[in-house]
UniProtKB/TrEMBL annotation:
Residues 191-202 have a biased composition (Polar residues). Residues 203-212, 370-394 have a biased composition (Basic and acidic residues). Residues 189-212, 369-413 are annotated as: Disordered. PANTHER family: CBS DOMAIN-CONTAINING PROTEIN (PTHR43080:SF2), CBS DOMAIN-CONTAINING PROTEIN CBSX3, MITOCHONDRIAL (PTHR43080). Keywords: CBS domain. This is CBS domain-containing protein.
Amino acid sequence: MLLSRRCISMGLLRTQARFYSAPTISNVTVGDILSEREKVFTTLDAASQGELHPHFEQWQSIRHDASVHNAVSLMVQRNIGSLIVTQEGQGVVGIVTERDVLNKVTTDEDHENLAVKDIMSKHILCVDPSTTIMEALATMNKEKIRHLAVIHTELKETVSKDSVPIEAMRCVLSIKDILKAYAEDKKQELTDPNNAAPITNTEKTEGDESKSDVNAVTAAKLLRKKHDKINLILNTRVDDNVHVAEAVAEMVKRNFGAVMVMDDGKKIKGIFTERDYLTKVLHPKLDARELLTKDACTRNVWSLKSDDSLHTCVFEAATRNYHHFPVVDSKEDIVGVLSVKDIVREICGETKPTTGFWLMEYFKKPKSTTAEKVEVKQPEETKAEANEPKKTEESSTPTTEEPKTDVSPAKNP
């Protein structure tokens, strides 16, 4: 079922004066976010604290030698997308995310016998609380990551390029956490009727397209920018009976986080994401080679309109519990899919990425005695590793080989 936004004032919004610039920059810092959370947390009793969403806790961790299935179970139970990986005597040595599980665990492997250290990302960026949320988003966009670790400023000297002592860790923030903070800070601007989507073509006479409409940043224009690089939508039809194993293989190959489930035309019937893979397949230990994608997908899909403004896209991405948003035209036909990262990329603008501390591959070389603050970039490699391909958290290079499942061209909005 495709959910449509029911906004009483939508018709009014689309006939009022238009304001087309991107949302303004926020000066809120990561420390501001954490201070507010901690303030709320300390006012609650123990029982209420235990019922809070995990975002209020400092961070969730798992041992490097724990099984992948244990990691999956913990992420599902706590409703989080990442776990900090620790090792006795080393402290924090990496991070394991939903994308790591999707990309590095084949559907026929025994998750009980596969260890977290075999799939974890060894590169995690640590920042201090003085980092602004705009800098944090710009950094995530540049490095193609979705999680940042926050360290205690007073313990910054103890952080090295090899590991982070557990006591130096303060919190882990996801890209959704930071986008939510941005939307909260800019709520009045993002929900201002004057920042609504431009007038649709049905509301204009032929040739009556103003200069401001042409310059408007809409979901359609975000899709055109995205499709300059990826001119397709990964999807499967309900009647195709594609198994989860096939869908996951194509998601990994294309570096996509979601597969659309369609009817015989262009109408959306559901969406299968990496979160669905964890919660509906791996956690209950179902066989991905037997389970159909249409039976494991999320049926209630929240969509964006192709003429929605950037302000609307930002607000919806921040407040809805989704990472991928199908974009539909006036006929409810799909024209593309926007991810949270696609929207963040647009609002970052010219914001300069911050500096931070990269964790190096563990089991590599002795921990240095002093901390070294480095510009955000890939860690230096040893000579022995110089020719090995580099990988960052949640990023990989998709192959150019054509997939065997149905891959439909994206319609230009």
